[in-house]
Amino acid sequence: MPVERTLSIIKPDAVAKNVIGDIIRRFEENGLSVIATNMTHLSAVEAGRFYEVHAERPFYGDLCEFMSSGPVLAMVLEGKNAITLNRQLMGATNPQEAESGTIRADHADSIDANAVHGSDSAENAAIEIAFFFSGLDLHSH
Ligand code: ADP
Ligand code: MG
């Protein structure tokens, strides 16, 4: 399995619930390393740029408002099969459909306040990592 990098975001709802540590523990216990972090508070315009692929979706406005409602923790995760592994640890977008033991099953309240973001492909991981980080900020270990 290839070593990959992926972007994870702990969303405003999970930051507010004080479960940053629990989420990062799950990544580390499953073989992913945190190689960059950035706690930031996105503006609605910045959230809109990040989620531009969803601009035509009916939930886009609410999504941008939610993602700019409080601080988030953006991270780069590195490890074997990191993109798919992170998506598995996250669980389904709708927490009611998320497998038990996943981050969203345990910490998400609804399909919009769903605790975490994770890149869905190698192409998007590269774009999303570059949105938050420069190459100088990535520290493999
Ligand atoms: P994921 O975050 O699992 O990759 P998507 O890329 O499909 O999911 O959607 C991006 C984000 O938009 C979701 O995490 C969720 O916060 C929000 N979202 C997706 N679908 C809906 C929906 N039907 N209603 C409200 N918000 C949604
Ligand atoms: Mg997505």
How does this model look, in words?
- The chain is an alpha+beta fold and 141 residues long.
- Helix content is 39%, strand content 20%.
- It has seven helices and four strands.
- A four-stranded antiparallel sheet has the order 2-3-1-4, with helices on both faces.
- Helix 3 (44-50) packs across helix 4.
- The longest helix is centred in the C-terminal third of the chain and has 11 residues, at 122-132.
- The two termini are 18 Å apart.
- The relative contact order is 0.26.
- The model has no long low-confidence stretch (mean pLDDT 98).
- Bound molecules: adenosine-5'-diphosphate (ADP) and magnesium ion.
- Adenosine-5'-diphosphate binds next to loops.
Averaged pLDDT: 98
Tally the beta strands.
4
Radius of gyration: 14 Å
Poorly predicted parts: none
Shape: globular
| Beta-strand residue percentage | 15-25%
Small molecules (ligands, ions, cofactors) in the structure: adenosine-5'-diphosphate, magnesium ion
User: In this structure, how is the largest beta sheet organized?
Assistant: 4 strands, antiparallel
Helix content: 25-40%
Keywords:
four-stranded antiparallel β-sheet; single chain; 141 residues; binds magnesium ion; binds adenosine-5'-diphosphate; 39% helix; globular; alpha+beta
